[in-house]
Amino acid sequence: MAKRRKNGLYPEISAELSALMRSGWANTERNNLQPTEQAPYAARRRAALSTRFPGERLVIPSGNLKVRSNDDTYPFRPYSGYVHMAGDKVRDGALVLEPRADGGHDAYCYQLPRDSRDDDEFWTGAHAELWTGRRRSLAESERVLGLPCRDIRTVVADLAAASGAPTRIVRGMDPSLEAAVTTDAERDAELEEALSDLRLVKDAWEIGELRKAVDSTVRGFTDVVGELSRAVASSERWIEGTFFRRARLEGNAVGYGSICAAGEHATIMHWTENDGPVRPGDLLLLDAGVETHSLYTADVTRTLPVNGIFTPLQREIYDAVYEAQEAGMAAVKPGARYRDFHEAAQRHLTARLVEWRFIDGPVDRAYELGLQRRFTMAGTGHMLGLDVHDCAQARMEGYVDGVLEPGMCLTVEPGLYFQADDVTVPEEWRGIGIRIEDDLVVTEDGHENLSVGLPRTADEVEAWMVRFAG
Question: From which residue to which does any coiled coil extend (predicted)?
Answer without folding.
Answer: none
